[in-house]
Specification:
Elements: E1 8-11, H1 15-28, E2 34-39, H2 48-54, E3 63-68, H3 75-80, E4 92-98, E5 102-103, E6 107-108, H4 118-126, E7 129-131, H5 137-150, E8 154-155, H6 159-166, H7 171-183, E9 189-190, H8 206-215, H9 219-232
Parallel strand pairs: 1-4, 1-7, 2-3, 3-4, 8-9
Antiparallel strand pairs: 5-6
Helix pairs in contact: 5-6
């Protein structure tokens, strides 16, 4: 097994991108990790989290102790976290996810004082900190290139830029659309006419809409979808 990080911080507002990044990191470390998941935005923080960080597997099975949505936790939590991250536990890989909004100019909104803590600085120095703004106009093109290269696909002239413009800025929704293009390109080249297969706009799912609105993800895209559905509605109501 390759050497894994002592601990990891993943900072991104897109849950699917977080999932994929953790999968890549786990695979590069040799795989075979069990997972134990905790939620930072739960009504009451689960005290079993601290026990999980200190646990030793009787069967020597390494595990990832994953903390999702930790951006809202208070200063006491970040102070307490210093001790379990101080040493390397060969049985436990702590992974902390910060999933708050990412400002295009200021970057991610981190919990107050976190960037000054020694373990955060260690993570940055050792490459144990991964940070992404999610899918944006700037990151979409390189993301699409990586996607195409992994599948040995190419783009006809102008297709890459147009695809980057029209795809939803959400990895889960974008992946669904890209699956259509992969199936429609048997010769390995995606042409402009194939883009007609893509949905005109993403399906409006009320809970996904509210979550995207709350987290501040792609506000222009969110409201464009809402008003597009309003215009398409026979009765004119915002939500049928």
């Amino acid at each position: 097994m390759n050497q894994r990080p002592g601990f990891s911080f993943l900072v991104c507002p897109d849950p699917e991108m977080l999932k994929r990044q953790l999968g890549r990191q786990a695979a590069s470390a040799g795989g075979g990790f069990a997972r134990q998941v905790f939620w930072g935005d739960a009504d009451e923080f689960d005290p079993a989290y601290w026990q999980a960080l200190a646990a030793v597997s009787l069967f020597a099975e390494p595990k990832i102790v994953l903390l999702r949505r930790a951006e809202g936790l208070n200063a006491d939590f970040w102070e307490k976290l210093a001790r379990p991250l101080a040493g390397f536990n060969q049985h436990v890989w702590p992974v902390v996810c910060l999933e708050g909004p990412h400002d295009a100019k200021k970057g991610p909104s981190l919990p107050k004082g976190l960037a000054e803590r020694p373990y955060w600085k260690v993570a940055a120095e050792k490459g144990w900190l991964w940070m992404s703004p999610g899918l944006t106009e700037e990151t979409m093109v390189p993301t699409l290139r990586d996607w195409a290269n992994a599948r040995r696909l190419g783009f006809d002239k102008g297709v890459l830029q147009e695809l980057a413009r029209i795809l939803p800025k959400d990895m889960t929704a974008a992946a669904r659309e890209l699956e259509k293009l992969e199936l429609a390109a048997p010769d390995g080249v995606i042409r402009m006419q194939e883009l007609s297969l893509l949905s005109a706009d993403t399906e409006l799912e009320i809970f996904n809409f509210l979550k995207a609105l709350e987290e501040g993800r792609d506000p222009v895209g969110v409201w464009s979808t809402v008003f597009g559905h309003q215009q398409a509605s026979d009765d004119g109501f915002l939500f049928q």
